[in-house]
Amino acid sequence: MNRIILIVIAIFITLPYGALALDYTDCDAGTTQCTCTPDDKIGLDQTIITSIATCQEACITLEPYQDDFGGEVTGYSAQCLIGGTVTTLSQGGLDTAIGDSSTTMVGEPQETYDVPNLGVNIPGLQFTPAVKINGSVTSNYLGEYIEAVLWFLFPVASLLAVIYIMIGGLQYIMARGKADSISKATGRIRNAVVGVVLLFGAVAMAQVVNPNFLKYESLNISYIDPQIYNNENKDLDFSFTIGTETAAYEASQGIIPGDILCDSSHTLEEVAQSTIGKITYRYGGKGDPPVYESETKTDSNGVPYSSYCPSGTVCYDCSGYASMIRQCVGLSGVGGTSSIFDSSAIKVTDYSTEGYINGIQLMPGDMIGRPSWHVWTYIGGGKWAESHADRDPGEAVAISGWSYPFGIMIPKYNEAYLKVSH
User: Fold this and answer.
1) What is the pLDDT of residue 70?
2) Cis ω before 420 (30° cut-off from 0)
3) Could you give all domains of the chain from N- to C-terminal order, each with its CATH number?
4) Across-strand partners of 133?
5) Model pTM score
């Protein structure tokens, strides 16, 4: 019985792991055949067909010309002789992506994307670039990654089984007739053999029952076109003066997430609430794209924050954010904190009554803070909005209650300033 098990495991160990997924490399020489289905009217140049992927690609190339040749090219079939027997390697419709019968591809690719760069490369893994087609992005990065890991694990498992068998053999030789040592050695050999037989046997059976056992369907994600902020009739110039420098940004050319409210039909609180999760802090950021020359910090990977603004967010510092939300409701833009809290700013002496500072009733758009430090914008209802120095994607905006800013400024600096904008 032990000899039978060893013979079986030897067969599985010496079996090329790629043989469980047939490709042109398994074919008898000169027998490969690619056919466009259901009716190949003009035939294909078989010399250019070197894989299942190139077979399908060739048929996809014929699809636009189907009317000229009187046939409707709807799919492909790749066949060859393996051991003298006609074998179908792969077949499917043209609504599948090249090289993956489970990936949807309808129409011509409109845009492709760079493939991921892995920190640890997996032998044999080649990502198929994600493509944008007819309003959706098709990607099989996860499926291809899982497949590559699994196929990599099979030879590794075989190698480990051989090592364990060798260790068990050495233990058996060195047992010198001791029953306990012999039992441990044979147990180690038996476990290694059973484990690898179960692994490869399960995969082989699954492949027979379902050839797509190790095929993973691609993700089809709807593509949402970025919303271009239209400055028409809003009188927002998005120009800000910072000391002697001017950071100018035309809102009509920038991408602002579509669910940020930005017109005078909304209250300042509504505008501020809609920015939560959409703003990332960058010192010197005014909604413009990088580089942010005033930003000096680096992220956990050592990449300067000044070099990028996270996807799906807009980058502002505290005064840039205050200017943006004010202009979204029709108020004037502001510069840096030094110009906001200039000689016309009022030193805060009494803030005990919510909504009033020094007896002055606040209006949405009024600001408090300190020059060359920070600014909060009053949005009504006893609430303040700010872009604080959180450089994680979308985490900059905070909306706080009435006493919060004073609880920071007064104990630390013993002063705060009000800038009335109405």
Assistant:
1) 47
2) no
3) 1-14+112-224 (no CATH), 239-419 (3.90.1720.10)
4) 136
5) 0.43
